[in-house]
Amino acid sequence: MAVIEIHDLLAPELAPFVSSNEIQLKRYFEPDLGIFIAESPKVIRLALEAGYEPVSLLAERKYISGQASVIIEKCISVPIYTADSEILTRLTGYKLTQGILCAMRRKKLPTVVDVCEKAQRIAVLEDVMNQTNIGAVIRSAAALDFDAVLLTEPCSDPLYRRAIRVSMGTVFRIPWTYIKGSSPEYIKELKSMGFITAAMALHQNTVEIDCGDLKKADKIAVILGTEGDGLKNETVRECDYSVKIPMADGVDSLNVAAASAVAFWELRKK
Known about the structure:
By secondary structure, this protein is an alpha/beta fold. 33% of the residues lie in helices and 22% in strands. The model has no long low-confidence stretch (mean pLDDT 92).
């Protein structure tokens, strides 16, 4: 393996780990697909198992022969940059989770048809920008036996570092992609593929989450909106159902990550 001691924090080969602009990382190899940063041994291992190609590693010195050693053995063909924790924190701007980062090449995203072809339960995120919520929803979908996640184009990228970290690497285990078109066009596309569409929203004729018709549906798409504004009115109108989670007196709602976990549990495949 090529273990390289860091002496110059401005060395160009360290640029992927220095840049906090993830849009730039996404364009790193333009016109080819760019890169993303995976953090912690578990998350990097899941990415490798999913077929993502490592570009370089950044590892705290004490972990090279410790908890990062298994990852390093799987990445012996790429450079491994190392230093003590204090230097790596100065380099990246944050303390490394479990002492290791990996810059990895992106893969071409699958089509919506490919993702949904055999799916029975899918989650759809409409215009959700918060990376923590993106990661949490994906983690819940993977844990509660949903088959796929679709995101509208304004959503944050699930391969941004914070989203990956919050998802605990499940972003590499559940199929996901972006669905093109604005509301309500994308709802019509879901319906054309045979999905019952359930908007998580308070609206006229709202049903409760344990509605029998929903639980018995062969194919269902659960649509969740952004914090604050929620789903667009036209999205709710186009969906087959608007669905609510009953709240105790004095509490008006759950945040989108918590609501997704409740909905996925209730509507999971039996």
